[in-house]
Amino acid sequence: MLTLCWLASTALRPRVAVTTRWPGVPDPLVERLHTAGYTRPMPIQRAAFPVIANGTNTVLHAETGSGKTLAYLVPLLSRSAPADGISAVIVSPSQELAIQIAAEARLLLPEPSDVLLAIQPVDLRPSCLSGARVLVGTPRALLQVFRGARGAVLGPDAVVLDEVDLLLPPGTVQPSPPTMQSSARAPGRAHRMAARGKARARPTRGRGGPAANPTALAIERRLRAKRPAQLVLEWLRRSRPRGAPKLQLVSCSATVCAETRRGVGWLVGGGGKRDAGVVVTAAPAHPPPRNLAQRGVGNVRLPSTLSHSVYSGRAAARLVMLRVATEELMPEAPLLVIPNGGSVPRCVDELRKAGFLSAVALNQALGVLPADEGDAAQGEASPEGMMQQRQLLADSYRSEASRRQAELPLLVTSEHAVRGVDFKGLDCVFLLGLPQRVDSYVHAAGRTAREGRRGRAVSLIFSEEEAQRMDDFRRELGIKVEKIDLSFLRP
């Protein structure tokens, strides 16, 4: 049975300097929260703490910028101890978000070695895994870590799927075959062979010749069809010791539809039950229209402090349009999002040639080199250096004085990599082309106007089809859109 915890609240407000204690949180963790600037829990954090702390499978659903990361980090860290080893594995769809989560967790733990970042699996050996309390990474990198240090990654109490609808798009969860559903039994030989792509042929009775092992082939087909995040969860579930409590699953996103919850239910029940657990949510200032659920998007949340603008013109003049928009709005901390499939390094080069000398790719600002194969990317900096660099970058956005002193760059990233990215002072997001889906627009635009602050999302569109799509987004989200025609501009 699906349980819904609804926290009635007004619009989210900015944090103020108070000494209110986080209820139920140990004193050392409260001190580190206050030191990091988190002096009071947000609504979603208050609602989620008792549910996650007692080990319940949970889906966190709240608008962008509402504090979902701390909503699962605080209860998970409250019940863990240094002697417990790795107590939580956090799965992120992108390197950028993984670095951010690891940096946040590092602020809340006493030792830097308590947090491990798995986007460079070659650096994570069994000796590195011993003594850590939180492991954060992308799905493919985590799978490589598990294969390389199988005996060291045992017994986490919880797995977190951050941006679950991107890790497990609706309709992609594959039920497990019977040999993979048991959490207490180690994987059999046929499964290990299938996972390595080495399913051997066996003689079939009555045929007089070799034939493929049907069990191994069936498992191999299932493995190929599954998302890497699902394989991470199944690997951890199978590696748990006999008699250990069930693995807790925490999922979160600002766009959680009924189909996503059904997919999470398959994972929670090991392919049998379809109960996603407890859904914890905070009431938005403006509830989403019902027609979102009819289109399969479902319960999209946008902050009420977010303004929306559309600049329409010629595609060849897109950089001129961007120049006009920046000169008109004068943002202090801008972010540019390009459509999936576009080249971020190429876009940065074009921007610099057009006079945007401060343009820099987000992964470069975090110390990660661009790569052709996302999860296997190698970075210039070590994981430790990436977390430190990310924290320094986040601190430069935190206050108005720091933003003026730091001369913030124009960060450039893609729709996929921008999911979950949180810089407190971002005041304007430019979309160089409109996303195909309304939930992608929500996540891109939601990088600003976070935690009650004001922000603006500016979409640069270049066709009638994009203009019609923006009208659809406007009706579906119930937002007001300011339209500016720049079709007279030439490149």
Automatic annotation (TrEMBL):
Claim: ATP-binding is one of the keywords in the record: yes
InterPro entries: DEAD/DEAH_box_helicase_dom (IPR011545), DEAD_box_RNA_helicases (IPR050547), Helicase_ATP-bd (IPR014001), Helicase_C-like (IPR001650), P-loop_NTPase (IPR027417)
TM region positions: none
Region of interest called Disordered, as start-end residue ranges on this chain: 170-213
Record-linked Pfam families: DEAD, Helicase_C
Gene3D superfamilies documented for this protein: P-loop containing nucleotide triphosphate hydrolases
Biased composition (Basic residues): 188-205
Keywords: ATP-binding, Helicase, Hydrolase, Nucleotide-binding, Signal
Gene Ontology molecular function terms on file: ATP binding; hydrolase activity; RNA binding; RNA helicase activity
Domain of life: Eukaryota
Signal peptide: 1-19
Domain Helicase ATP-binding: from-to ranges: 49-184
Ranges where the Helicase C-terminal domain occurs: 318-491
Protein name per UniProt: Uncharacterized protein
Biological source species: Emiliania huxleyi (strain CCMP1516)
Upper lineage: Eukaryota, Haptista, Haptophyta, Prymnesiophyceae, Isochrysidales
